[in-house]
């Protein structure tokens, strides 16, 4: 996946220049330059306003000891949109406008929140599988490596075995030898 991102970023300037040539041939060079300058000015205005609002909200949150009322995602989206509008080009301007417009931000916020939740769940499942492979008991699971509902942390019954993976013979972590002795009387 990172290689695709690198290739896309390398191709972006060529796509932007091609789009400028196409738009310039369609509406003329002076109007194309005017549109690019207008988008840059809009981007600077968005950055100034978003930065001022983000600073004011952060200052208010620090003084009151609460989280910022609008959250952190909206100011970040506004700033990213402003930066994309300042970059000369029509493709980055379209993405920047999507991040800046008030009626597209809630949809993008919802999509980002869903992506972040899925990513966190995958990372948690991967970490739990790594801990189980090392013989560490994961909180919320019984000693046999499955939760009380009979599924492994990733959702399937023995997900690693289902994919044909074998547990490593040796653990990669440090093993501390010891035993447990309960304190006090254990009579029921």
Automatic annotation (TrEMBL):
Transmembrane parts of this sequence: 7-27, 33-51
Signal peptide boundaries: none
Region annotation Disordered: where it falls in the sequence: 138-188
Keyword Zinc-finger among record annotations: no
Keyword Transmembrane helix: yes
Pfam assignment, any one: FxsA
Keywords for this protein: Membrane, Transmembrane, Transmembrane helix
InterPro entries referenced in this protein's UniProt entry, alphabetically: FxsA
Protein name per UniProt: FxsA family protein
Organism: Nocardiopsis changdeensis
